[in-house]
Amino acid sequence: MWITGHVVDDHGRPLSAVRIEALDAGARRRRAVVSNVRGEYVLQDLQPGEHTITFACAGFSTVERKTDALTTYVATVNAQLIRRTGSA
User: I need a surface site. Which of 25, 49, 66, 85 has the fewest CB within 10 A?
Assistant: First the structure.
């Protein structure tokens, strides 16, 4: 199973170098990747079931998304990160 998606900032611009981590709710396995210059990412070889997806980048809020029990081969999870107040 795969999870793909896009990460953007609060102005809708793609964010690169965002760490995206999937935690498998059942087996407690983690898989992490980093978004590319277009804000795209792909998490591959995930087990079917529920996952918690965390998006983290310096200077931005951390976003967490929970998936339902994944039953399709590819799921899409997008995120918008908000710049923290006082960050350049």
Answer: 85
